[in-house]
Amino acid sequence: MHCGPPDMVCETKIVAAEDHEALPGAKKDALLAAAGAMWPPLPAAPGPAAAPPAPPPAPVAQPRGGAGGAGPPGGRGVCIREFRATEQEAARRIFYDGIMERIPNTAFRGLRQHPRAQLLYALLAALCFAVSRSLLLTCLVPAALLGLRYYYSRKVIRAYLECALHTDMADIEQYYMKPPGSCFWVAVLDGNVVGIVAARAHEEDNTVELLRMSVDSRFRGKGIAKALGRKVLEFAVVHNYSAVVLGTTAVKVAAHKLYESLGFRHMGASDHYVLPGMTLSLAERLFFQVRYHRYRLQLREE
């Protein structure tokens, strides 16, 4: 079963505010003005407090990220820049941790999105009481069902994770930085990679897909995910794609609010999405359900 991006992924240099000189005159001004109007700049993420230096240093221009993934001086903000080959393991770790967080969310919180599963579990508990006439045994049924949901959520999500780690996330440079139409960015704070995001073009409909977005849990709430999302939108504007699309099985409401705050429109959801790693066995159908949401941000009409 295919579980990662196809081999057709791309090389494109993102032309953001810090390197806009690469664009010619009028085209540069028009594209950057459009991006700026659509997504106003984020405030810099606060870093750890530092004692005032004495004497005060002279003003220093903010770098785009030095060797080894250095961010802005003094850790006062987040630097979003293109991925470097030396950051492969850091990016894989953030991706791994982000996906593993979905196991309990899918198993427990996700149950609220599936009323049919709730009804089935209630019927099983009622059947247990009707057969055993034991309140104790009946009370154990929900715990057993939730335990099975956790087991199958872990089984499927780990299978998906292994699949991804052996396809595009096995060699980010090869999948996203070399072929035309794709790119991979990292968020760097105090010299450490704290977030990732990728873009992959679909030339058949002139769209860009946003994927692999994840932020280290220790650095959330600083606007990093939003900054990563905007980098993909800038990429799409500069390279004249008509829309940005994404698909997600995220359960947390915060994830969906993030996409909407970036301007994405919810295009629908499906309960029949087959996640890479699923076997579609009867037990899996009973104890693992996922809802797939589609989002789209239309940049211009074709």
Automatic annotation (TrEMBL):
Annotated region (Disordered), positions in chain: 46-73
Q: Which reaction does it catalyse?
A: L-aspartate + acetyl-CoA = N-acetyl-L-aspartate + CoA + H(+)
Q: Where is the N-acetyltransferase domain?
A: 143-283
Q: Does the keyword Transmembrane apply?
A: yes
What sections of the protein cross the membrane? 119-148
Instruction: Tell me which EC number(s) this protein carries.
Output: 2.3.1.17
An example Pfam family from this entry, by short name, is Acetyltransf_1
Look up and give the membrane topology term: Single-pass membrane protein
Q: What class of enzyme is it?
A: transferase
Compositionally biased spans, kind Pro residues: 46-60
Cellular component terms, GO, for this chain's entry? endoplasmic reticulum membrane; mitochondrial membrane
Per UniProt, subcellular location reads as: Cytoplasm; Endoplasmic reticulum membrane; Microsome membrane; Mitochondrion membrane
- What does the UniProt keyword field contain? Acyltransferase, Cytoplasm, Endoplasmic reticulum, Membrane, Microsome, Mitochondrion, Transferase, Transmembrane, Transmembrane helix
Q: Which GO terms describe its molecular function?
A: L-aspartate N-acetyltransferase activity
Please report which protein family the annotation says this sequence is part of: Belongs to the NAT8 family.
Q: What does this protein do?
A: Catalyzes the synthesis of N-acetylaspartate acid (NAA) from L-aspartate and acetyl-CoA. Promotes dopamine uptake by regulating TNF-alpha expression. Attenuates methamphetamine-induced inhibition of dopamine uptake.
This chain belongs to the protein called: N-acetylaspartate synthetase
Q: Which organism is it from?
A: Macaca nemestrina
Its lineage opens with: Eukaryota, Metazoa, Chordata, Craniata, Vertebrata
- In the UniProt record, the gene name given for this protein reads NAT8L
